[in-house]
Design goal:
- By secondary structure, this protein is of the alpha+beta class.
- Helices cover 39% and strands 26% of the residues.
- The chain has helices at 2-9, 12-33, 38-114, 205-211, and strands at 120-128, 136-139, 152-155, 161-169, 174-178, 185-190, 197-202, 214-220, 230-233, 245-254, 260-267, 276-280.
- The strands form 2 sheets. It has a 6-stranded antiparallel β-barrel with strand order 1-2-5-4-3-12. Strands 6-7-8-11-10-9 form a 6-stranded antiparallel β-barrel.
- Strand 6 and strand 7 form a beta hairpin.
- The N and C termini lie far apart (129 Å).
Length: 292
């Protein structure tokens, strides 16, 4: 007990001194006697396995730390790439929409050139009635822009053509009834000869849903009508200006009365994706018409 107490009573700095001296002695012995002496071998057998284990542990820890650092870096890089990818997708969508809009506006410009005898203004579609088709919709121009009830409305496309007519108007908006609406009737003419054969284009939403076409009626029995023949608005129409493309004839044949021909018309305008239109500010002069 006394020996233990004596050991505990030894100051720690003295123990440190002893350890340092012992290490110095062993280093000196190794230097003087060489690496093959018994003391060196004994120390080596005790120390080297421990050192090897510590080295392996250190290398393993270093590898794990590097893996974690690499994983964190990859996660941060992946998050940045996802963010950049989202930004690029958004930018690509915006540029694509701008490209489509530019193409539509180019079509409208060509349409305005084709009907340059009329005064026109462009407008955007801002609201449509329910259903698949733009059979009745609002545009963002009104009386402040010169619009009136009865203004004809056109849209671009492959060739572009008649959309419908303004039925009501406010200061900065107007409602358009399209030619595909069930209540629409347009007096037309077939370009089958120099004078043009008259006909009537009737709106039919059910037929648009089924066949994407309108009804074509009251065609002279003796006129030969080929598929794809162009049909324009007629001078006989009470509301529509003459010479505007309506669409193309299809499947025309003598009807059940055996007195006239009837068939279908494929519209020149796509009524499922209207975005911009052109409004003709000139109105049809009623005195020059005889009704549709």
């Amino acid at each position: 007990m006394k020996n233990k107490k004596k050991l505990r009573d030894i100051p720690s700095r003295h123990i440190l001194y002893l350890v340092v001296v012992a290490c110095a002695v062993m280093i000196g012995a190794t230097w003087i006697l060489g690496n093959t002496n018994p003391v060196t071998n004994t120390i080596a057998r005790a120390v080297i396995p421990m050192q090897t284990g510590l080295n392996e542990l250190g290398s393993s820890l270093a590898d794990q730390i590097e893996r974690v650092r690499t994983l964190w870096g990859a996660q941060e890089e992946n998050a940045l790439l996802k963010e950049e990818n989202a930004v690029l997708r958004s930018e690509n969508s915006r540029l694509l929409e701008q490209s489509y809009e530019l193409e539509r506006l180019r079509d409208l410009l060509e349409l305005a050139d084709e009907y340059s005898q009329y005064t026109m203004t462009a407008a955007r579609v801002i609201q449509k009635d329910s259903g698949n088709w733009y059979h009745s919709f609002l545009i963002d121009k009104g009386t402040a822009d010169g619009l009136q009830v009865g203004c004809n409305v056109l849209a671009g496309g492959a060739e572009g053509g008649l959309v419908g007519i303004v039925t009501s108007v406010g200061e900065n908006y107007a409602r358009v009834r399209a030619i595909i609406d069930d209540t629409s009737r347009v007096g037309g003419m077939l370009l089958s000869d120099e004078t043009g054969t008259s006909c009537v284009v009737s709106g039919d939403l059910e037929l648009m849903n089924e066949e994407e076409c309108l009804r074509l009626n009251y065609i002279d029995k003796d006129v030969e009508v080929e598929d794809g023949m162009r049909i324009l608005t007629s001078n006989l129409s009470s509301d529509y200006l003459p010479g505007i493309l309506i669409g193309y004839a299809r499947d025309v044949a003598v009807d059940s009365s055996n007195l006239q021909q009837a068939g279908y018309l494929t519209p020149a305008v796509r009524f499922d994706s209207l975005r911009e239109v052109v409004v003709i500010l000139d109105l049809k002069v009623k005195e020059e018409t005889g009704g549709e």
